[in-house]
Specification:
Length: about 375
Amino acid sequence: ESSVFILFGLLVSGLLRVFLNPGSVSRHLGQGRFKSVFKASLMGIPIPLCSCGVLPAAAALKKQGANNGAVTSFLISTPESGVDSIAITYALMDPIMTVVRPVAAFVTAFAAGISENLIGKPDTTRPIVPDLSCPVDGCCDGQNCSPEVHRNHHSFTEKTKAGFRFAFTDVWGDLAVWFLFGLLLSGIITVLIPESVFSRYMGGGFGSMLIMLGVGIPVYICATASTPIAATLILQGVSPGAALVFLMTGPATNVTSLTVLTRVLGRRATAIYLFAIAICAVGFGLLVDWIYSAMNISARAVVGQAGEAIPHAVGLVGAVLILILSVQPVWRFIRSRFVRSRTTTAEPLTADSTTISTPEPCAGST
């Protein structure tokens, strides 16, 4: 039901990569306490990066002259939203959540960035050196080749092909394992946890928001992978507002990213980052529950209706294509986690080794 929307989101993300290079707009994020934050919050909405994948991009923005507020905004809006997650939210949930999710990400990012820039002191000593390198094939670095000249290096067809290649290799390569994990987890939740548990403790209200906040902050899950889990939670009796809290906190925070953020931005900025996400997530969660109640809409009744509009045959073809695209990244994940660990155990290397050779078997080994 969600395959066609996933493919659409991937295609848009790939085209964004080649037609709107994020590095080339970084020079706009260093000037002004308000304008830079607005631009960073807006720029992060369509880019499909998870909470760990966004860290290198944010570090590059900081090196290129972006102020702390802009970097903080980018770190929040990017993992909380993306064209792929927006598309799958429409497929698996409903139009209300599809609209509220990116809006909440933008407001949260803007509030955190403004708070950081107002509390902290601007750093005017760092020069702005934007990354203008070619996003298609790296044919030039953008410094020794003017944008006017480089514009003629690649045709529209070449850029489109590069965008497709980036979408189906790099973008889905980063998302495939976590998305499949999210699907499996949503199935396990449906089978093993009774509906009464969710409806009793997370059926709505401030308490359910706090419970979901405690669940979402420490876990690592990308925006796309968190969507089927949130849809399943709603079907099991969790209020849409509590599900939104999970969608906002799960992709944007985890223990690893918070540790790295402390090193990149400092403890004060990290505290503002976490506080803004928590406050806005709970606030928007309560607002969403009120919207559904005021409009007399049952979130459980409308979940997944958009996906039903896709013809079964088309959805089946999309699902098969998604599975084919997932083979290589899933195998790469398995090999890196399990095959390599066994190889490392069986073939230790010395500190001065320059080549890898198969060691002689130990005495008594089989």
